[in-house]
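Why run this: before we spend reagent on co-expression, it is cheaper to look at a predicted model of the complex and decide which construct boundaries make sense. The entries below are exactly what would go into the expression plan.
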Amino acid sequence: MMYDLIVVGAGIVGLTSAFHYVKNNGGKVLVVEAQAGPAQGNTARSVGGFRMGLFTSSINRLISETTVKYYLDVQRGGYDLGIHQIGYLILLDELNYDMYVQRVQELFRAGTAKLLSRDELKSKVGFIQLDLVDEEAQLMGLRPIKGAIFSPFSGYLDVEKLAMHYYEKLVEMGVEFKFNTRVERLKLAAVNKIGHPREPFAWQEKKIEAVETSRGLFEAEKFILATGAWSQELLDPLGIDSYIKPKKRQIFASPAGGELEAFFNVKGFNDFGTLPMTFIPRGPFVAPRIRDRSLWMGLSDDIGRRWGLDFEAEDLFFYDNVYPLLRKIFPVIEGVRPQSKWAGCYSINTIDENPVAFRIMNLIVATGGSGSGVMKADSLGRIAAALAVDRKEVELYGGVKVPSTLLGIRERRIEPEMLVF
Amino acid sequence: MMYDLIVVGAGIVGLTSAFHYVKNNGGKVLVVEAQAGPAQGNTARSVGGFRMGLFTSSINRLISETTVKYYLDVQRGGYDLGIHQIGYLILLDELNYDMYVQRVQELFRAGTAKLLSRDELKSKVGFIQLDLVDEEAQLMGLRPIKGAIFSPFSGYLDVEKLAMHYYEKLVEMGVEFKFNTRVERLKLAAVNKIGHPREPFAWQEKKIEAVETSRGLFEAEKFILATGAWSQELLDPLGIDSYIKPKKRQIFASPAGGELEAFFNVKGFNDFGTLPMTFIPRGPFVAPRIRDRSLWMGLSDDIGRRWGLDFEAEDLFFYDNVYPLLRKIFPVIEGVRPQSKWAGCYSINTIDENPVAFRIMNLIVATGGSGSGVMKADSLGRIAAALAVDRKEVELYGGVKVPSTLLGIRERRIEPEMLVF
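The model came back. Tokens follow.
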């Protein structure tokens, strides 16, 4: 059985890649996935947050805004993706206020971000603590809050619903899925075999011939590797770099009720009457989830958090690093005990934290969401699909055309995102 | 005992970094090295080849030419570095001739590279075979040779002598060396400790406090990591990326004598009467070594050669990948049996194969020679030393000034080298 294309990974990027490939080219396509169903790896473990008009780098804006517009149109069209535009709120302290305000001037002008003064913040969010002058706050590096950037169109969606949207379309289109099928090796072969047991030799042109999986070998003309945090494990034996490394991220959730109800009773930010997804100085965030009325909390830690696949959520991480800071700014959090916690792995492109999509031989690598993969997945899938058929230009949702090498490494324009929180 | 600076690694980059640091700043400096002496890791395993005026990318030219000029001046000053400017010769086949000739026009104009016709080649190197039209040649992807690029000022040096040059100066300057001392961990700590057993926490400013080694813990204000192919092993636990990966490279050596004498009896290329270091299509090279009259042969293989530390030279690699191609072009090689072989690991910067030098906290990472580290080491050491004292500008040998962020990642201008052979 020879497929036209095998997509490795049924996470959100594998699904969008397969979708755009089949939509444009048809053909016999197989998606292979280690988990029991679509998007049950790191996609399922993500917050599903999306920024809308809240990036400064042009590549970030291009690939996220086109993607999110598509998601919004899907939901407007009647397919519920669980999108809640509760907004993003980034608190600024006395130290970083001027720098951030200067960096997002363009977003203020475009109307996708608004500056809130300290007084506006205090009047909208009665239970917030902005002074932060005591010894404990100083010890943790917290400084008085001077204002905030509010992004009204940002929010989160339900990643499982989003995955099902693409999955259902793929099944309709006749794409074959093999779940519970772990890819163990990408099998390298000579393009023109000579029948020698040790080929391919260094002097032979090469290609990927098949994937060796826990359920046998599957051959195809082309392969898309959409394996996120697992990508480098498959590429190391081939001596190919994905430019990404895995890093653990953790989420801690507590049901609303009691004092935490305060987060769900905030006027003036969104239609749901909640606090936006809020990022406080030094990194912790809190996100009120509408559907299950729970509060999600987390922190993307950097130096000291080792690279590697690790799926164990640690209570101590919450109590050491997230809770002490959140509690200073939101005293109602005092005494919270998360009732659930989970960990996933970002696939971090360490160069500029934007996704990576490139072709080498007949292999397309599409990965490196770096924590913003869900909000860029539709565009990334389009680019991967274009690379699979050697198309030079890709049309993103809404008609914007970009070169298919946009997310490659050699042609990359490194443009660090200035709005990091 | 608190050092001003600890340099991890006494390979060529560690030595140049320590040298330029102490020369400019003095201070109490320790160099820690796992091997028994200087430059006994991958530096010792390298060919020691250098290109002079044979790069197209401006960064490559800048950092290699300044470095090689320094080496040449050292040798002219009476300190023998074993430099032999035997030249580089890159054979071009019918397929790549036009492309390469176009790419190096600027080098032809500058006079650092010359174009040789097929006839000139044949008349200078009587024993070369340029036709390559038989079935075996075609099978291996060899095509008729149409000409060659000759780089008269390139050559190789003795890496051990080069290392001793810096090492002796460092000892003179009072720099302390600890050999047979393997660094097991870079110890992360909070800048302002609070005395908690689990610090540093995510919200604390951090620094490297010490290196934990096989011979105890050593503390310093700053650290330079010049650990080449071993760098990422030390950085993974910290969640920092070096942007480099290790890949095995092998050299096979055969003494001259018999038919191989032909390589040492070639007129018109250099003062030594040898064939230049010669690169043939599809990658294999052959280098006549003057001092011990031996022929070094090798090949930098790419796809299919796994990333990772691996120091085992494989006879089969030579007979499968190097020998069959070299023999077609140099029939005198027929039947050669290398009498020695060794393997080392390149530290490959997978972005653009130029070195990497950046500072994070009080740690400077200087690595990623990618196979051209020896010929860039003096400049890389100057840049690392400048980063260690937060100097924005670096003066390379000969007075050229460059920003110290030149080899950083965020500020990087990716400029792929067009002259790859």
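The CA atoms of residues 40 and 159 of chain B lie 10 Å apart. Residues 94-151+246-348 of chain B form a domain with the D-Amino Acid Oxidase; Chain A, domain 2 fold (CATH 3.30.9.10). Bring this page to Monday's planning discussion.
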